[in-house]
Amino acid sequence: MKTSNSIRLGVNIDHCATLRQARYREYARDRGQMVEPDPLALALVAERAGADGITVHLREDRRHIQESDVARLRECIQTRLNLEMACTDEMVAFALKTQPDSVCLVPEGRAEITTEGGLDVVRHVGLVRDVTESLQRAGIAVSLFINPEPEAIEAAAEVGADMVELHTGSFANHYYLEEARSEELDKLREGAVRAHEAGLIVNAGHGINYVNIAGVRGIPWLHELNIGHAIISRSVFTGIEEAVREMKARMRGGLL
Ligand code: PXP
User: Which member of 28, 51, 54, 125 has the lowest number of beta carbons within 10 Å of its beta carbon?
Assistant: First the structure.
């Protein structure tokens, strides 16, 4: 079994762009590097601090990351680029043009503040299979962001995904309710074993922070965690370098 010493960290930098868009909504579309804070500059420092990959979510409403950000990241980062996106023709065309190393397919509702639930692979099995196959034909690895439920895991294996990202949001939301927390953690542990046995690489993400990482890191077979809000928030006080180093240390079970 993989140990928590070797779990990789994908740093989700969406909220660096959220901060930029709060002031420079129009300029950022075509003059990414001219306005602060620049997600690419942040990504390069995060990599220097030990990030194993950079994750961005290009949302339908472009509320944070822009196409130009993804293109500049593709050109400049040294680690892996993971693009989170909805299963739409527009996004598939963008991914095929931009060639991230991996795509994580997520559900997307306009009204949600962040990605609220996992992708309903069972309901949209045909669409997810088509999108997965066209991305894989272009050499892009495909992950599905799902709740840790047996049906969703089986459907992910059935459509031929390379990876699943287990949704840790419910665990994070119940972290301070002891009984519910341990139920949610059991679901994640069981889901991880089931996904691994189905031949899927196991990632996890959403709502992970410097406290609840102590529970998340014990999920078996974890390959990568995608963490955004907590790291970007911490970086306001410490800078991104220390924020990434500290999360990596906690992923290994230590403190900086
Ligand atoms: N993984 C997925 C699929 C997500 O949609 C998000 C949120 O954008 C994250 C991970 C990161 O979540 P957080 O910002 O809460 O760490």
Answer: 125
Establish whether residue 233 lines the binding site of ligand 1, counting it when its CB lies within 6 angstroms of any ligand atom: no
Per-residue pLDDT of the chain (256 residues; tens, 9 = 90+): 665 569 999 999 999 999 999 988 876 555 555 689 999 999 999 999 999 999 999 999 999 999 999 999 999 999 999 999 999 999 999 999 999 999 999 998 755 666 678 999 999 999 999 999 999 999 999 999 999 999 999 999 999 999 999 999 999 999 999 999 999 999 999 999 999 999 999 999 999 999 999 999 999 999 999 999 999 999 999 999 999 999 999 999 987 6
Q: For residue 83, report the distance from its CA to the centre of ligand 1, in Å.
A: 11
pLDDT tens, residue by residue, 26-46: 765 555 556 899 999 999 999
Residues 199 and 222: beta-carbon distance below 8 Å: no
Check: pTM over 0.90? Answer yes or no.
Answer: yes
Cβ atoms within 10 Å of 20's Cβ, excluding its own = 23
What is the position in ligand 1's atom list of the atom closest to the CA of 206?
12
Which one of 206, 223, 224, 246 is the catalytic residue? 206
Residue nearest (by alpha carbon) to ligand 1 atom 12: 206
206 touches ligand 1 (CB under 6 Å)? yes
32 three-state secondary structure: helix
Query: Is 229 considered catalytic here?
Result: no
Query: Dihedrals φ, ψ of 191, to 5°?
Result: -60, -40
Quote helix, strand, coil % in the chain, to nearest 5: 50, 15, 35
Q: From the CA of 89, how far away is ligand 1's center (Å)? A: 22
